[in-house]
Amino acid sequence: MSTSTAPASAADDRTPVLSGRGLRKHFGRVVGLAGVDIDLYPGEVLAIIGDNGAGKSTLVKVLTGALVPDAGEIRLDGRKVEFRRPQDARDAGIETVYQTLAVAPALDVASNLYLAREERRPGVLGSVLRMLDKKGMRERAGQSVRELGIQTIQDMGVAVESLSGGQRQAVAVARAGAFGSKVAVLDEPTAALGVKETGMVLRMIEQLRERGIAVILISHSMPDVWAVADRIHISRLGGCAGVITPQSHSMTDGVAIMTGAASVESSGHEREG
Ligand SMILES: Nc1ncnc2c1ncn2[C@@H]1O[C@H](COP(=O)(O)OP(=O)(O)OP(=O)(O)O)[C@@H](O)[C@H]1O
Ligand SMILES: [Mg+2]
Description:
This protein is an alpha/beta fold.
């Protein structure tokens, strides 16, 4: 199907596909973000870990237009951008699955994949009568779902509310892969899932990476993060406590840095090669 792109660990001389500098967001007196830098390189899975309230969701909301930062700068492919709403980021190729899952339960799988991107029938039927190309969307939905290796959803016409939690998450992740997006942002996509469903979503994340889509994955599951991430950004108290890799630091090190019990320098085992 797709050929694997180069792994993206020591990526610092390349232009990030998405980056933030000095991102700040206050909610009244509560500090959501205290001036955070973040870089996402092409073809990598960047995990964001951190305690509850560390600022992970706020960071991705600011990067994806769901919140406007009080200060700081966002660049997409090196160019400065200002997203005022999620649709701005989506139009620029950033597809986001927010923590509170964004699917419409009563709609079918195909309609969910094409939510806010409905395709019209060709010719007059579409341009004048505004008729939706339901058959086409259903066919293409089936194709993107199959491409991502989800075998368990067979009928794209079935309502999403009748799917399992994992299948729903899979639909949300498939959305991210369906439109030639550059970046997919997933805020805790496996939080409510069982082992098998989690495995399915993790495989989809790897599929997205293989297709050249850079992925930001927020997760509280250290095994998930250590299984799929190329680099790990550690959020702490509205800031960033450091960036590590699954090779440089263990899960225990990651948790210690997250909680302030250790620093990036005081832990880990920078292996050669
Ligand atoms: N809309 C809001 N209004 C007020 N405070 C907010 C708002 N959104 C976030 N915060 C605060 O900002 C801080 C960071 O919250 P955020 O949701 O980014 O944390 P998180 O790292 O995603 O946590 P979790 O792991 O629980 O999802 C918290 O103190 C939170 O209470
Ligand atoms: Mg959150």
